[in-house]
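G., the chain you wanted modeled:
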Amino acid sequence: MATTKWVLDPTHSEVGFKVKHLMFTNVSGQFTKFEATATSDDENFDNATFDFSADVDSINTNNADRDGHLKSGDFFDAEKFPKLTFKSTTVAKAEEGEYVVTGDLTLHGETKPVTLAVEFGGIQKDPWGNIKAGFSVTGKINRKDFGLSWNAALETGGVMLGEEVKLALELQFVKQ
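Predicted structure as tokens:
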């Protein structure tokens, strides 16, 4: 069986997240600079490997002050830890078109295993003859597991930020 390499098309991909703010709403953000590769057995992703990285300095929550705080030592410490990475360790087919991908996420100098739900959208040829594969990825991590523990107590009780971070990625790969 032939091995196929796939490279992420960043112009047709998104890397987003959400975290609770004030215990009752979510604040959303994204990373705007990222790259990824996948290696598969031809166009079958049952035993694929995925490598992903994002530039922490590209974080964008549509608020410059908040973005600056997130890049600081209170959170990501972008100067000291400029990238976050994910390397898959297993890809298990859950059912047709759905996978469970486990891998090592390195964030803020900490590496922990995470499990992601991956929906395979299929393979399509674009108008320029490129073969593309699409994936929707969701998952959750606890930010404190990665040393992102800054928080503030609220006057009415509770804390400003939730510990759980919801991940949502739309990834489009180009067959090489």
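The helical segments are 64-71.

Shout if anything looks off.
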